[in-house]
Design goal:
By secondary structure, the chain is an alpha+beta fold. It has helices at about 10-35, 40-60, 65-90, 95-115, 120-145, 150-190, 200-210, 230-235, 235-255, 280-290, 320-335, and strands at about 220-225, 260-265, 265-270, 295, 300, 305-310, 340.
Length: about 350
């Protein structure tokens, strides 16, 4: 299935990135205060550079360069993680940032497919991040941290880093789950709903009938718009679409207790789970369509329906049931149209 880029809300992603960028700026600013207090010179310099970077990154977001923004953030955080781990030791937990980067790197690949941007290989980049994390931690373990700070501050930094990473992963997971749920809803809607008439699709109706209990009573009605080709040829296909939608709304109102699908073209399949008032309901629908004023561009379009009806057989064969309704429809078509045949 091709991706519909119009459905992708780029502005919403940009807003999310703005919030992330502000959060990163404030976090680095907070950590800068600690670095200044303990006179950790490399981290002071890099924190200032990182904060300037986060300010400049707003320009990328203003231009909706989301992927470029993400890769700039990745690079900034990776360097920050490596320098901090070497300077302060792995016990401060700066290496934990690798855990938060990897999931979002794969998400950036998804975004790049939506906006036609070439994205680097997320697997290779993830491996590189893990390698940087391991190497910087190994250097800190083998050589010891470049700066000694007391255990209380180490615990505070570890807590800040662990909380930041955990909060991000929780939030990120929530965003991804919501994205999956929303995507599934859209796919189900595309598969199960006819976009023109907002009725159920043929696929939905087939699945529905296959799951319908064979022991239950019920009837199927196949309805077809009479002389629909003539309507299209005379008034145009836009008028034909208007007529189909007009009829669909009438069906929804009159057959409110039924399951209705657009079966194909100008055909509709209607199912009701009881024998009650079969002919009366469908005759009411036929009369309503015949007597309704369907006005398209100030022109009245004369429309009518021919409907074939079939009751459920004991054997419960769905194809045979639909065929009987279809056969009765075409009997009506060949014998005057604009009638209900049951």
């Amino acid at each position: 299935m091709s991706i519909n880029k119009k459905e992708f809300n780029l502005e919403q992603v940009v807003k999310l990135c703005v919030v992330v960028n502000i959060s990163l700026f404030l976090f680095v600013a907070f950590m800068l205060i600690l670095f200044v207090y303990f006179n950790i010179t490399p981290m002071i310099y890099y924190s200032v550079i990182a904060m300037i970077g986060y300010v400049l990154y707003f320009m990328l977001l203003k231009r909706q360069k989301v992927c470029a923004y993400m890769w700039c953030v990745y690079a900034t955080i990776i360097i920050y993680m490596a320098i901090a781990t070497i300077c302060l030791g792995y016990k401060c937990g700066f290496h934990l940032y690798s855990m938060s980067l990897i999931p979002i790197i794969f998400y950036s690949q998804y975004i790049s497919t939506k906006i036609d941007t070439k994205d680097p290989n997320p697997l290779a980049v993830s491996i590189a991040i893990v390698a940087v994390s391991i190497i910087s931690s190994a250097i800190a373990i083998i050589n010891g941290p470049l700066y000694e700070i007391n255990k209380t501050i180490i615990s505070v930094m570890l807590a800040c880093n662990a909380i930041s990473v955990s909060a991000f992963l929780i939030y990120y997971t929530k965003v991804i789950v919501n994205l999956v749920i929303e995507s599934e809803k859209k796919l189900n809607s595309i598969a199960n709903i006819d976009l023109l008439t907002d009725l159920y699709s043929r696929r939905y109706m087939i699945n529905y009938l296959e799951e319908y209990d064979a022991d239950d009573e019920g009837w199927l009605a196949m309805a077809d718009v009479d002389d629909f080709k003539k309507i299209n040829d005379t008034y145009g296909h836009n008028c034909g679409d208007y007529v189909l939608n007009f009829i669909a709304q009438k069906m929804k109102n009159i057959c409110s207790n039924c399951v209705i699908s657009r079966w194909g073209g100008e055909e509709f399949l209607i199912h009701n789970g009881t024998h009650d008032s079969t002919h009366e309901v469908l005759e009411k629908l036929r009369r309503e369509i015949e007597n309704s004023e369907c006005i398209y561009k100030q022109q009245k379009i004369n429309i009518s329906l021919t409907i074939g009806v079939a009751q459920r057989n004991a054997d419960g064969d769905i194809e045979e049931w639909i065929k009987r309704a279809d056969d009765r429809l075409y009997y009506g078509k060949n014998n005057g149209k604009n009638m209900v045949v049951d």
